[in-house]
What does this fold into?
Amino acid sequence: MPSSLGVVQRESQLEKVDQVIRFGQRFSLELNSSTDGHTIAFQGRGDQWNVVGLGDHETASTSIRAGINRLPQMPNGQIDPIWEENDEGITDFVMITAATDRIPLEVERLIKWVNENECNVHRKVVRLER
It folds into this structure.
């Protein structure tokens, strides 16, 4: 028997999400860090992962402070909101924080690096809807 019932789904089978975001809705990534350091972020859909530019001029990494950080930010510290207008469905946002700004951007190298270095991995699951 198929796992779905046509166009309807059972609530118990739905992937749990942290937040629902509508197309065009501005949002930021919130990170609560225990220490100062650096972070990079990825947006993932299925097996496709893309870097989210958090730094000045959309560079990959940015500095963070201990406490709550809302990213990305402009050079003056003001939040620079992001939004989605193309792909709906479940999206993962993963942020890696470390003392160094030399965090690899290639997923294969990053996986190895995370296992060999002191860092923290933060994940937020979002459903993007029209």
